[in-house]
Amino acid sequence: MYLGYNTNGLAHHSLPAAIELLAEIGYRSVAITLDHAALNPYDPHFESELREISDLLVEHNLRSTIETGARFLLDPRHKHQPTLLCSKGEGRPLRVEFLRHAVDIAAALRSDCVSLWSGVLPVGDTAADGMAHLAESLHPVLDYAGRHGVRLGFEPEPDMLIDRMDRYAELLTLIDSPFMKLTLDVGHVHCLEENSIPDVIAEWHERIVNIHIEDMHRGVHEHLMFGEGEIDFPSVVAALKEVEYDGPLHVELSRHSHLGPTAARQAYDFLNPLIDNHA
């Protein structure tokens, strides 16, 4: 496995500056959250930026993952909207189009996957409605991803329709694609799951293509610096080693941008010795 960092924790840096900072610290992967100042596919300078970022990743020998959870990229007034659960009249096609752009970017950068989530269930919809809308929305995205050889890492997220692993398992009964994989956020598992993080890793390791990591308290969805929550990280790294996980381990400290370089360094200094000790 190799250590990376999500650029949603460096929101006050340009993307080239963030990449150079993370390479300098020692990270081997960058989870690029597409946003207004980071490979925005709707920006008029997108094509030249994509070439610049591709060259920078090669120059620093960095891998990448494409993240699609920007808060206000598609709708400046409503966080994370529209989602794959919205009606067609409320913007679902825009989310599908955005995810296709994300697949194109992942293909161009040879990224490990595109990470995505379901979104919050719209008011008035039942969970069954939401699951049907989600499966219907994912089919064209998965078809597009498959034609480009890009895997989707679907992430269960607290407060969204797909929030726990049992919901993810239910979704898989409606999806039949070898490109439907899993982004596992160890903090989310600790927050919501009854099973331990090592047990969840053991059960789902064959689908995991991307891991988010941060500290957290059980029942409270707040991404914390390592040591500020309750997670036993040596056991998490040992579980990943046990299943021979060889993908990215991306730090996600999305509320630490005001401490960007310090937080990135602190996270690296905490995690890298754990990974090296299990190498």
From TrEMBL:
Gene: ulaE_2
One MF term in the entry's GO annotations: L-ribulose-5-phosphate 3-epimerase activity
Highest taxon of source: Bacteria
EC numbers on record: 5.1.3.22
Name of the protein described by the UniProt record: L-ribulose-5-phosphate 3-epimerase UlaE
Keyword tags: Isomerase
Domain Xylose isomerase-like TIM barrel: 19-272
Pfam families: AP_endonuc_2
